[in-house]
Automatic annotation (TrEMBL), chain A:
Designated name of the protein: BlaI/MecI/CopY family transcriptional regulator
Entry similarity comment: Belongs to the BlaI transcriptional regulatory family.
Gene3D superfamilies found in the cross-reference section: Winged helix-like DNA-binding domain superfamily/Winged helix DNA-binding domain (1.10.10.10)
GO MF entries: DNA binding
Record-level GO BP terms: negative regulation of DNA-templated transcription
Pfam families reported for this sequence: Penicillinase_R
SUPFAM superfamilies from the UniProt entry: Winged helix' DNA-binding domain (SSF46785)
Keywords (A to Z) from UniProt: DNA-binding, Transcription, Transcription regulation
């Protein structure tokens, strides 16, 4: 139980989405659990997560009655195309002038400059001094 | 007048040569990034100003000569000489302006494309919008740790879900403060200027070096600005994201901030 709880919310969402996207037909909660790889989440956790995904617009409910409620990934996958675009953007050369990124906008030369300025006074020497 | 023109030319050339020597190298920049950036800007603009000024002084000096020579003779010839000199003198200025515009155009165009693409991405991937003080922060669904700012979007700052879920609340605030510094200090403009400068002087290594170091310096300046407001959370955020992304430059930036905090603590303890 504790192990299942500690699974990151995002990770669970991603796995469920992956399962739904791999299936053309809508799946019920039980069916999702059956094909769940690795540690299976509790049924209620699964339903809560599905609900969250539904609110985000990633998953839609099929069938009205609670008993035969099924889920499928929303057909258009804007997320996927969006991510491909973002992948391309973060690799593009114009990021220097336009994209000011908190992460990863420095090139090897910059890293060299930083290393050069910071490493000589290693933390240890600093603390002893 | 000729002496003035020569002095200004000499100054312009000196800044061209000295700026990369002073600002383009040395460890001190890592410790005083704001000073380095300011020094570069001061040199750049004063050099530009001096170059334009020298041209004007040279033209004025030449005009003087022509007018002197023709004072007693036919005044039409004198007038023609003046006009020719103006064309000769300001021709280079016009040519320079033309080159700058031409070189800047593709850079600005690419930037506009990026902005359009990001706007599209905001539509597709945004799952939450939040206000942080006066900034609007959009959260994008994207596993990689990522935060950025770009002028011309309806969001001031974009943060990826990968970054948001890895960071503590304090660290997230630190990342946003870092981005705020980019916005407030117009770092987009700084980088654009450095890029246009490098594009106009394609064979000048100093210009390329300047472009590279300006990218590093604006990051360090923004780190420092954020650290003044958020303290150790900035280093924490850099360490978290750097580890997640396997980005050594971020770990080094974290180390730099930690070294500064250590140094500050030593000073405090010595008192
Ligand atoms: Zn930054």
């Amino acid at each position: 139980m504790a192990g299942k709880r500690s699974r990151a919310q995002g990770e669970l969402e991603r796995e469920i989405l992956a399962i739904l996207r791999a299936n053309d037909l809508p799946l019920s909660g039980k069916e999702i659990l059956e094909v769940f790889p690795g540690d299976k989440p509790a049924y209620t956790t699964l339903l809560t997560t599905l609900d969250r995904l539904r609110l985000k617009g990633d998953v839609e409910k099929v069938g009205a009655a609670a008993r035969n409620m099924r889920f499928r990934a929303t057909r258009t996958d804007p997320e996927h195309t969006g991510k491909a675009m973002l992948d391309r953007l973060t690799e593009s050369s114009d990021r220097r002038a336009s994209l000011l990124k908190f992460a990863g906008s420095l090139d090897p030369g910059d890293i060299e400059v930083l290393r050069d300025a910071l490493i000589p006074k290693a933390p240890k020497a600093d603390r002893n001094g | 007048m000729i002496a003035l023109a020569l002095t200004l030319v000499a100054y312009a050339l000196a800044t061209l040569a000295a700026a990369p020597l002073l600002v383009g190298r040395g460890r001190w920049r890592v410790h005083r990034p704001g000073l380095a950036l300011t020094a570069w800007f001061a040199m750049f603009f004063s050099g530009l100003f001096a170059a334009t000024g020298s041209l004007a002084a040279a033209v004025a000096a030449a005009l003087d000569q022509v007018l002197d020579a023709h004072r007693d003779s036919d005044s039409v010839l004198g007038l023609l000489g003046v006009i020719a000199l103006c064309w000769l003198g300001f021709g280079p200025l016009g040519a320079a302006l033309f080159v700058v515009t031409e070189r800047a155009r593709p850079i600005l165009l690419r930037e506009q494309e990026t902005r359009l693409e990001l706007t599209e991405l905001v539509h597709r991937l945004r799952y939450r919008t939040e206000r942080f003080g006066d900034l609007t922060v959009g959260f994008l669904r994207y596993e990689r740790a990522f935060a950025c700012t770009l002028q011309g979007l309806d969001m001031d700052v974009l943060v990826s879900s990968g970054a948001a879920s890895a960071l503590s609340r304090a660290e997230l605030a630190a990342v946003i403060e870092h981005e705020r510094a980019h916005v407030d200090l117009r770092h987009g403009l700084v980088l654009r200027l450095a890029e246009v400068n490098a594009a106009c002087l394609p064979r000048v290594r100093a210009a390329a070096e300047m472009m590279r170091s300006s990218a590093l310096l604006v990051e360090l300046v923004a780190d420092d600005a954020a650290a003044r407001r958020c303290g150790g959370a900035v280093a924490g955020a850099l360490r978290t994201l750097g580890t997640l992304e396997g980005d050594e430059s971020m770990l080094l930036r974290a180390m730099r901030l930690e070294q500064r905090q250590d140094a500050a603590r030593h000073v405090e303890a010595a008192r």
